[in-house]
Amino acid sequence: MKEALLILGHKRVHHAYELYNHSEQCDLWLAAWDAKTKGLSRTLDRRYWENILAGYTAVTDMPAVCFAEELIDAFPEAKVILVQRHEQKWTQSFKTEVIDTFFDNSSITALISFLDGKLMRPIHRLWSRLLASDDGFLKGTTRNQVSDNAINVYRNHNALVKAKTAPENLLLFHLNDGWEPLCAFLGAEVPDVPFPNANEGDAVKEVVAAFMKRNPDKRTIQRTMWDIPSLYYYETLCVV
């Protein structure tokens, strides 16, 4: 969705990979999660989000999906695109690419975050809180807990977005629908280019390039890559 929105004229779209270029944002997202879990969501008003998202005209993916309710409340006029996925396929992919990857490599990524405190430490801290803590987005600390909870979190997220968004502001979108329904919903002209196919590998390369500028140790970089693909499978909500 990020690439599609860029093609349609959005200059900056917030996506999980933005954090690898702007790791200073991680503490702001963590503070927002603290407020949410402590029952202080009312403090996450429009001004708060405009501070975090200054310069962006759309948001998608993690960590924004964790704040669907707060973002919709803060921007009731926003167009919301809810990406639809086949539940069984999503669940299997999520387990393989996210849960197993995260827990199989937690020790390595913790070490990397220690070695690169400026970039990787705040990122690792954010993902650990959201993905593997009792009060995290997936409400579990172990592989089995997270695996068991994932499908219900996914369903509850979709139900919440549908309930909170005004019908005229909501598009239920399948990625193979192509440009026409998306452009009609956004009031944009259909571009004369193919609809972008999500290529996780290319996105990972961009993130690794950012890490390479800070740490040229190729062995460390190769290990870092295993901490990155987990973000792709959260791309279910887009607010523009």
UniProtKB/TrEMBL annotation:
Record-linked Gene3D superfamilies: P-loop containing nucleotide triphosphate hydrolases
Protein name in UniProt: Sulfotransferase family protein
Record organism: Penicillium citrinum
